[in-house]
Amino acid sequence: MRLPFAALLLLLPAVVTAEDFPSLGPHSRIAEAAPIVSGRASFYSTSFHGRRTASGETYEHHVISAASNRFPMGTLVAVRRVPSARCVVVRINDRMGHRKRVIDLSREAAVALGMIDAGVVDVEVTPLPKYLVGHERACMLAFQPPAHLQAGDGAGLRAPGK
Predict the structure, then answer these.
(1) How confident is the model at residue 66 (pLDDT cuts 50, 70, 90)?
(2) Domains identified in the chain and CATH numbers
(3) What is each CA distance from 137 to 25, 125, 128, 160, in whole angstroms?
(4) CA 112 from centroid of its chain's CA atoms
(5) 3-state class of 47 per DSSP?
(6) Spatial CA neighbour of 112 closest among 135, 92, 133, 86
(7) What is the dihedral of CA 68, 70, 75, 80, to 10 degrees?
(8) In this structure, what are the phi and psi dihedrals at residue 22, rounded to the nearest 5 degrees?
(9) Other CB atoms closer than 10 Å to residue 139's CB: what's the count?
(10) pTM exceeding the 0.85 threshold for the entire prediction
(11) Model confidence pLDDT, tens digit, residues 115-138
(12) What pLDDT is stored for residue 21 in this prediction?
């Protein structure tokens, strides 16, 4: 009777220290799509050139930047003009004194969106995910839902070395 009990005690440390199989983790780890804020956008007048922004930087109309009360300072956001496909990535470096619009863009960002003649246009704005920073198509990809990869049953997979 003592022999099986002793054998069980010898196996217990091996079971406790055994490594788990790798997993993809719980579903809560899957990236959620960033919220898209819709509204109106305008752009800074050239008379603001050289003034201090809320971040302490000097506003330069030929640099792509923006002001918004809806996103934290320093956030990179993708701005898409609706209904066109024009899109630009800007960094929030200022705050707005009004709440009528979602975002105020630098003149250079407004040129990229083709809104100089219109003045105020409809836009969609979303924070740029970290994995898209520096990607050449980051702006358009920011508005796409995140890819969800599903683990299959492994059909057709072979063990290493076979």
Answers:
(1) confident
(2) 37-142 (2.40.40.10)
(3) 29, 16, 11, 36
(4) 20
(5) helix
(6) 86
(7) -70
(8) -65, 145
(9) 22
(10) no
(11) 998 889 999 999 998 888 988 888
(12) 43
